[in-house]
Fold this protein.
Amino acid sequence: MKTRILVTGGTGYIGSHTVVELQNNGYEVIIVDNLSNSSANVVDNIEKVSGIRPHFEKLDCCDLSGMDAMFTKYKGIKAVIHFAASKAVGESVQKPLMYYRNNIVSLINILDLMPKHGVDGIVFSSSCTVYGQPSKENLPVTESAPLQPAESPYGNTKQINEEIIQDTVKSGSPITSILLRYFNPIGAHPSALIGELPNGVPMNLVPFITQTAMGIRKELSIFGDDYNTPDGSCIRDYINVVDLAKAHVVAIDRILKQKQLEKVEFFNLGTGKGLSVLELVKTFEEVTGVKVNHKIVGRRAGDIEQVWANPDKANNVLGWKAECTTEETLESAWNWQKKLRELGIQ
Ligand code: UFG
């Protein structure tokens, strides 16, 4: 019998890619998603990619009794990967209570129900946002860099979630956990059957680039060229979403094989390479041969100037490494955008 893994938010961007990788590695997946920012036909597309249909329950993780019934229905779940969360930084400033409720109550419910249903392991989606702007001597940033006060309610929910998991473990709960701090996930599955589907005007850079290249948006605004970086634009660590997804399989294997050194482990998931906004746009144009109209505008409030990962711990301890080049990744993002056009979606 295959080992059952619960993936909350499994029809979302990173979730859907992770479900495919789990299935490719012999796991049986149960997806729980309230479809607030994704659609049920992602389940069909996951099946097209992996050849296996995951179980799917349309359910909100904030619904304690619904989640309880789900764990009872799918007996024997061995571990949870908890992606389900609201994730738009700007929206979180407008609707803080919605963010605190969605992102915190859902985790509390899951941690509460896990021991009751004999589930010990949880992999949690955290973010490099917890580091804020690291000082120059802390770049590239390691897991031991000091955390900074969050810039937004969204960022604060990630910090609070990390604390909730640590406090729960300290209290003697049987739970073991791996907290994955993602840098900037981009790109899509090479099949172009799953990818990122932003709601409305994209907030993130790469969907905005691909939509501009497609002619859906007139022009990309580059938020600032007066930062203290070589070309003046912000620097990030852009990581391929399939590489990121694979790290979750490694984390699940590690939990299930009880290889953890501590009951709460933290890992940065990045490439180790910082790229500026202008460099990323240029690379996209080179790879695709398509021009991206852009203009420089003022800085975006709350942006970090520069952050990229030191991924040594994930490389050495997890044995995981980001493999895809930026070129391959941007090409996959472009192929996905072209597929959306073919389907008449965007
Ligand atoms: N940018 C532009 N123009 C755009 C969009 C973005 O110039 O239209 C720039 C931003 O100013 C930033 C870079 O592109 O310098 C990347 O911006 P994203 O919005 O793609 O990503 P962020 O680094 O701001 O944020 C991401 C996630 C957050 C997460 C954060 C840190 O969107 O959810 O990383 O983990 F909190």
